[in-house]
Amino acid sequence: PGYAKRLKKKGVTRQQLFQEYRSSHPDGYARSRFCNYFQAYLALSHPVAHLEHKAGDKMFIDHAGDKLALVDRDTGQTIPVEVFVSILPCSQLTYVEAVMSQREEDLIHACESALLFYGGTPAVIVPDNLKSAVNKPSRYEAELNEDFAAFAEHYGCVVIPARVRKPRDRALVEGAVKLVYRGIYTRLEGRVFHDLESLNAAIRVALELHNNSLLTGRSYSRREQY
Questions:
Q1: In this structure, how many other beta carbons lie within 10 angstroms of the beta carbon of residue 218?
Q2: Domain span including residue 24
Q3: Looking at residues 178-185, what average pLDDT do you find?
Q4: Residue 100 and residue 63 share a domain
């Protein structure tokens, strides 16, 4: 416990703790064994619960950090566009759509498209404190954007933003974004799109391949699980 507490201090490393341990216990554990036991203690003292997600309970939403782009037909100018991503945690069925911005009208449009894609509404929509959904983040009760809250109420959903400084609340959708980079972005490389309609048509083809591929270590796909 003492070593674990000191490891939290700035500048303290496990190597320093091991050297201190060996100076007090010359015949003690070797470095690898010391580190293994130390890691096991940290895991026991900071347990992480496995979350079981219920079907139809939540829909997580976010925007990908890396944007896609359109090319203006007349000027050749490259126009960056946002990529909306949503995921249902139980089945991991994913929805992806390119939108012009992260403004509330584009967010609401993308969320509505996701609900139509899923063919139903979840009990809870979980945004990652997007400015177009959340006016004021909070660890306890965030202040929601009125238009987005009205949209959710219209569809019978509750909005519960991910908690500030709680990365595990966002882990699922962030993992989905990484898979979108691999499963969708790579299939669009080298292609030129002049409008959202053609870009989203290409995204939809790649998305179907993504959702219908087998999950790692499983005998079923996201679509089958859904």
A1: 11
A2: 2-45
A3: 92
A4: yes
Average pLDDT along the chain = 87
Top pLDDT among 48 and 123 is at: 123
C-alpha–C-alpha distance, residues 180 and 198, integer Å: 18
For residue 67, give the CATH number of its domain.
Answer: 3.30.420.10
Number of Cβ within 10 Å of residue 60's Cβ equals 26
Q: Which residues contact 55 (CB under 8 A, 6 or more apart)?
A: 88, 90, 91
- Token representation of residue 143: 């202040």
Residue 50 has pLDDT above 60, yes or no: no
Q: How far apart are CA 30 and CA 23, in angstroms?
A: 12
- For the chain, what is the total number of helices (H) and then of strands (E)? 9, 8
Residue type, 124: V
Residue 200: the pLDDT is 98
- Do the domain assignments include residue 52? no
Q: Are residues 28 and 90 in the same domain?
A: no
Distance in angstroms (rounded) separating the CA atoms of residues 75 and 78: 9
| Same-domain pairing of 181 and 218 | yes
pLDDT tier, 139 (very low <50, low <70, confident <90, very high otherwise): low
Long-range contact list for 161-164, CB < 8 A, 24+ apart? Answer: 161/126, 161/127, 161/128, 161/129, 161/133, 161/134, 161/137, 162/126, 162/127, 162/128, 162/129, 163/139, 164/129, 164/137, 164/138, 164/139
Find the helix packing angle between 146-154 and 104-118, rounded to 10°: 20
| 21 and 133 inside one domain | no
Distance CA 13, CA 79 (A): 46
